[in-house]
Amino acid sequence: MSYLKFDKNLLINLDQSLTKEMLRTNQAGAYHCTTLVGCNTRKQHGLLVIPIEGMDYKPHVMLSSLDETVIQHGAPFNLGLHRYQGGVYSPAGHKYIREFDCEAVPRMTYRVGGVILTKEKIFISQENRILIRYTLVEAHSPTTLRFRPFLAFREVNSLCVANDAINSKIEPVNNGVATCLYKGFPTLYMQFNHKAKWVDEPNWYNGIEYVKDLERGVPYCEDLWVPGYFEVPIKKGESIIFSAGINEVSPRSLGKMYEAEVASRTPRTSFFNCLKNAAKQFYVRRGDNMYILSGFPWGVVLARNTFMALPGLTLAIDHKADYEAIMATAMRELMHFVDSGEPSKDIKGIESPDIPLWALWAIQQYAKVEGNDAARKLYMAPVAKLVDSVLSGKYPNLYVDSDSGLLSTDGHEKAVSWMNSMLGGAPVVRRTGRLVEFNALWYNALMFASALAEGDEALVDRRNEWLAEAEKMKEPFISTFLNESGYLYDFVDGSYADPSVRPNMAIAIGLDYSPLDRRQRKSVLDVVTRELLTPKGLRTLSPKSYGYHPNYIGNPDEREFAMHNGPVRPWLTGFYADSYLRVFGLSGAGYIDRLLIGFEDEMTNGCIGSLSQLYDGNPPYTGRGAVSHATNVAEVLRTYRQLKRLGAYY
Prior knowledge:
Shape: elongated
Strand order of the largest sheet: 1-9-10-11-12-19-16-15-14
Helix content: 25-40%
Number of strands: 35
């Protein structure tokens, strides 16, 4: 039985089925995302969404959806589903659904009278092409399938309005057609592995609504162009394959192409396999470079998310080569910035002050898995350069105090940490001065760099300097951040110490090296457990702290305000687990094991098989934001593999 399986009773109930989404990617930036029943509820949903190089690699919805119709005895039964203005769902094809399962590929089963039809979708790796295979399992009379493509040709965050500027020309190609609605876009090729009849019937389908955007208080209604439809006869036991891509393909190759892709997939038969598949969806190759997308469906390549997610998305699933490829790309851009001060065009936010700290942490995770010798060989030079760039004040907006050794940064006008929400041109959470996780990461980086350089005669003097800097900041860290209540201030700016109970202290106590002793770590851990821990990770703010706003709902301003003032972030579970195991040792493994159950429950919620960007801070902890988020998947995977190494999984 499939690990991800949904029956008719759930699927025909739109209140339930429209909350469940599915995602497929090609590991080159393209994706397919929609609800389980095929009704698009976000403007970012689409059957074929691709990045376009000439448009800054921004994803664009080419083919929004494909409506299928079963025809028997001249009677049409439309399997499609759209929401139109006024909340009207048409043509209500979900009533024919009998089952959905998602093991190797997502498969929907329909029943129309005596007809049983299955539909399976798969992306071609590294190619902007999606294949859909239809199999007629049962039929008692001649059957024809009709396919009506809904075209958008727009950027994912915009909407299409009926217009006269489109190029409505349709070009015949082998077993299909090709079209390009607007200048500057690639041509879309729609083909079948069987002979297909094309019928011109051009029309705008007006007033299609996206209910998720309606809920989010953003524009939510658009018009889509439907140039006509295909008709293909199909016999019992026969399969036909539809291809949508930006290059013409040989129809004869579609069958082998489909089977080869299926054979390369990891079946989603367990919690780990679901997360492993989700992890690989964030990989992006562009020529010789390899990146990590921050999330779907509106993710970009971000420096901070890259380094935070890299160990979990690669090393935790035994993809060492992918770690090294992604790190090579990211480190090249980071070193260029250190040398020239020029921000990267391909990796956003590389100039943020905490980037070298997270990069060093990511390399430390590699050393823990592959050993110091392997890490030293590949990364000793960039580690030394990054540490020295911080010490010398070369990295912008990151300052080392000569007396205390503590780091400070200016976050008055721009958000400088991962809590980066902005409203009205100012940070929502104005963290400035000495930030707790910045300083904890810095202490950890100095100690790690010293450990990595041990035995290297060329680095003796620098190693001693790094150790001295770490020792210098040890007592000031404790006196600055550890308060009488037993937890850590979130930031200290001059004489002001922010008392908000936030999860950044969990990062500080979860690192391999910490200025805090075991007793002090436990004191902080107790507060984190008591006030921040939920089944979905750690809250971004304690309910007891001023400004707690647990639900990520409302218009864009309301959501931006709430983002880091209460909602839960699953990725923080990784640091919580690290700190718990450091305090309690092997006896804490069972507790962390039970904690992961809350994430396994999410495999059948939201975007099935993955984790949302954030969750409400109060029960029932509803998933919000991006449907699949890299750092969340990464850190839950890293925690899972850590438990496996400790013997919690067999």
